[in-house]
Design brief:
It is elongated, with a radius of gyration of 29 Å. The strands form two sheets. The chain has a five-stranded parallel beta sheet, with helices on both faces. A two-stranded antiparallel sheet has the order 1-2. About 55% of the residues lie in helices and about 10% in strands. The protein folds into two domains: about 100 residues, no CATH class; about 200 residues, Rossmann fold. The two termini are about 45 Å apart. The chain is an alpha/beta fold. It has 13 helices and seven strands.
Length: about 325
């Protein structure tokens, strides 16, 4: 059985903890050989916690005299250890090997909850397995700015671009929120630079938080991989992994459909991917610069029918946001 993302992340934390333990053990052995007295001190310091626990168990922790005596003794041991370490040519803190994460002391849990260090590893693994770059990982619902879309009414649209995008944003949030209970798939249509990739990434990031298995792949990159594998050419392990996940992941995002070189082979593979996932009830988001008629003309009636019949079509309207950002100096 394949490891879950959590198990992979937990293994990283465990390996980190084991690495610290082994390094501390190596340093202790090195120091004890050179200065045996330090071993005795370390043993006394290790017993410090036990002695304090015994005081608590005996109801004596509040008796300042007993606590102070043990604490003072402990401080003297620390000072002696520092003197001996520096005298033996070591740094005084050579045996105070810090934790990678001081909040959880490399356990992965802070106060009974998943520590931020473990959550960071979970997120990074999830993004890598979803094929999301660091840039795309920053594209979230919270970072999506409606202000880039004009609030002016456009008779041709029957609304303003901003109103249109408000509706699309709401639909995308709903898609992510109701992912487990809805059978909806999304088709993002519209010209370049209108936020299709951004909102695809936002949905992906939201679902990754829910520990869903997401794969994000550009059609321009996917179909050459499929062609190479079909004709027995060598492909990378990452490419093999992407192909394996095409039919298994909870959400497949095919970005920029129509950017690939369209052949009979790509048409057959596209239909196979879409049809198999729809039959299996596995969700998809497809983004494309093509409209309904262009899809039919670029591919074929069967593919166009499967897409338009199995997906909710969201049409992105307005001006190229990337051009606006460029003028603002943000690109």
């Amino acid at each position: 059985m394949a490891e879950s993302i959590y198990e992979k992340a937990a293994k990283i934390i465990a390996e980190r903890k084991e690495k610290r333990k082994n390094e501390l053990s190596r340093r202790r052995s090195e120091v004890f050989i050179k200065e045996p007295r330090i071993k005795e001190i370390e043993e006394e310091l290790d017993r410090y916690g036990i002695r304090m626990l015994n005081l608590i168990a005996n109801g004596e922790y509040d008796e300042n005299r007993a606590v102070s005596a043990i604490t003072a003794e402990n401080r003297e041991f620390v000072k002696e250890r520092e003197r001996l370490l520096t005298g033996a040519g070591f740094d005084k803190d050579y045996l105070n090997l810090g934790y990678y994460c001081t909040k959880c002391e490399d356990s992965g849990f802070d106060g009974g909850k998943i520590c931020s260090c473990l959550q960071k590893e979970i997120t990074e693994i999830a993004l890598k397995e979803a094929n999301l770059s660091t840039l795309l990982s920053e594209q979230t619902f919270d970072n999506f700015k409606l202000s880039y879309y004009s609030a002016d009414f456009v008779p041709e649209y029957g609304c303003s671009p901003r109103e249109n995008m408000q509706a699309i944003l709401s639909e995308c949030r709903s898609f992510a929120q109701n992912f487990d209970t809805s059978d909806e798939n999304l088709l993002f249509c519209g010209a370049c630079g209108l936020g299709k990739t951004f909102l695809s990434s936002a949905v992906a990031n939201e679902l990754i938080k829910k520990e869903k298995d997401v794969l994000y792949v550009s059609c321009n990159a996917l179909f050459p991989i499929l062609e190479d594998m079909h004709f027995g050419r060598e492909v990378s392990q990452n490419a093999q992994y992407i192909v394996k996940k095409l039919g298994e992941c909870d959400l497949l995002i095919l970005d920029d459909l129509g950017s690939e070189f369209v052949t009979q082979f790509t048409c057959a593979e596209l239909f196979r991917i879409i049809n198999s996932r729809l039959i299996a009830g596995r969700k998809m988001i497809i983004s494309t610069n093509l409209n309904r008629n262009m899809l039919k003309n670029t591919y074929n009636e069967r593919i166009a029918s499967r897409i338009t019949g199995g997906f909710s079509m969201l049409e992105f309207l307005g001006d190229d946001i990337r051009s606006i950002k460029k003028l603002e100096g943000k690109l």
